[in-house]
Specification:
241 residues, alpha/beta, five-stranded mixed beta sheet, 8 helices, 9% strand, globular
């Protein structure tokens, strides 16, 4: 509990002024705080929240997240939302090649091979509702760690209830029946338009299917997958500001 309390106190501390120490400080009112435009959702890969907390607050590990949600729904804040947490690593989504700089990272206490408890997802939705109110993040910009780092990560895993989140306005989803994709459809271009880095095309396909179909993570886009992808692109276009 001491570690968790210390992390919470650190999260509440004001950000120190960063800059040249020899400069005379004459503050201007004309600036904005960092406004995150994405949320990246993770699974801790741990068996307990306490274990995950030790990892996320260990100076030697150099990993962190803005929030951690335990299996029982307890919400912990580790990093001020204005600050850049170290959660996404080497990552890409659309034109953004450094998700840490433009996103909030949320860790869910989960070993990666288990369902997410309803109470935990309810706590996540409450948190996301507040984040949406503060930053007006577009529905298409709620993604998973495996989406932005498809060659390295698979979390939050195929067990994550993306459809439930999408019903609350967080992320994209299409229920069947899906439209037939255009005959001239280019799957690589379509995945790229959705946001995926397709430089490793098979990894991008697996990431897409882990997120959106979940019952099949092979590296081949079926007609069903392409239909869903076509639907998702239409949904994305409709929800962009």
């Amino acid at each position: 509990m001491y570690v968790i309390a210390a992390a919470l106190l650190a999260a509440c501390a004001p950000l120190p002024r960063a800059g040249d120490a020899s400069a005379l400080w004459q503050p201007s009112p004309n600036f904005d705080e960092r406004r995150p435009g994405f949320v990246v959702i993770h699974a801790t890969g741990s068996d307990t929240a306490a274990h995950a907390m030790r990892t996320l607050t260990d100076t030697r590990r150099r990993v962190s997240a803005h929030y951690l949600i335990a299996r029982d729904g307890t919400l912990y804040q580790l990093v001020d939302e204005r600050a850049r947490a170290w959660h996404a690593g080497v990552s890409s989504w659309g034109a953004n090649t450094d998700l840490n700089s433009v996103s909030l990272g949320i860790e869910l206490d989960n070993n990666g091979d288990e369902p997410f408890p309803d109470v935990q997802i309810a706590a996540l939705i409450r948190l996301l509702d507040g984040i949406r109110g503060r930053y007006r993040i577009a529905p298409s910009n709620y993604v998973g760690h495996g989406d932005v780092a498809p060659t390295r990560k698979v979390d939050p895993s195929r067990h994550f209830p993306w459809a439930t989140l999408a019903r609350h306005g967080f992320g994209l989803w299409c229920d069947p029946p899906w439209p037939e994709p255009p005959s001239a459809d280019d799957p690589a271009l379509a995945l790229r338009a959705l946001g995926y880095d397709v430089s490793e095309f098979e990894a991008a396909i697996r990431a897409f299917k882990r997120h959106f179909t979940q019952d099949d993570t092979t590296a081949e886009l079926t007609l069903r997958d392409r239909g869903m992808l076509h639907c998702l692109l239409a949904r994305k276009a409709a929800t962009l500001p």
